[in-house]
Design goal:
This protein is of the alpha/beta class and about 210 residues long. It has eight helices and eight strands, in the order βαααααβββββααββα.
């Protein structure tokens, strides 16, 4: 089976790509291409995300998160146990009257590279302020590059994702929320991401 004629990336994949340097970038893109060709890939975090959303929606105070750790398949239980404290910490930062808000996916074009912008959920705070939230669940904290790329691309398409909202990247293992840095210049980020996207496409085309 051949790879798709036009490469694309999810927001997660592109954010992981910009965090890498040197040969690690090519290795990463090659792995993505092989995964796409074989149509493999599984998200082990799905049940945890659903439980977190349930706790927010139904003001469960962590009840759903605690339950899912015991209900998940044994293979994933250690992962869920690691993520639980940070998820509970994050949940504790939200006002009890915070509600879930519906988000929509969007496609960001970085030059010729489509990047799928897909928040995990939206929030509407009691004061009316809304946020579109991406969760970071990797073992290592998100790098500055990952944070800037994720928040910038979400902001760029917020009119489609969740109008009048702001982006947030939650480091779920540590319960830390990252929001846009006012000192970051969007024009410079655009130039940087355009270069990264061009390199991604070039690497994809030669990946074995």
């Amino acid at each position: 089976m051949t790879a798709p004629a036009v490469p694309y990336a999810t927001l997660l994949a592109f954010a992981r790509y910009v965090d890498r340097t040197g040969p690690a970038k090519a290795t990463f893109v090659g792995g993505l291409r092989k995964q796409r060709e074989s149509r493999s890939g599984f998200n082990p975090h799905g049940q945890l995300i659903k439980a977190l959303k349930s706790d927010i929606a139904f003001h469960g105070n962590g009840r759903h998160l605690h339950a899912v750790v015991n209900e998940v398949k044994p293979r994933w239980k250690p992962l869920y146990e690691i993520l639980l404290p940070g998820a509970l910490t994050y949940l504790g930062t939200l006002d009890k009257d915070t509600e879930l808000a519906q988000t929509r996916d969007a496609i960001a074009m970085l030059g010729d590279l489509p990047v799928k912008i897909n928040p995990h959920f939206g929030l509407r705070h009691p004061d009316g302020h809304a946020e579109a939230v991406r969760l970071h669940m990797d073992e290592q904290p998100p790098s500055r590059e990952t944070i800037i790329a994720t928040l910038h691309l979400m902001s760029r398409h917020m009119d489609q994702v969740l109008p009048h909202a702001d982006p947030a990247l939650v480091d779920l293992r540590r319960g830390i929320v990252h929001r846009p840095d006012p000192s970051v210049k969007p024009d410079q980020v655009e130039q940087w991401l355009a270069g990264e996207a061009a390199a991604f496409r070039a690497t994809w085309s030669v990946a074995a």
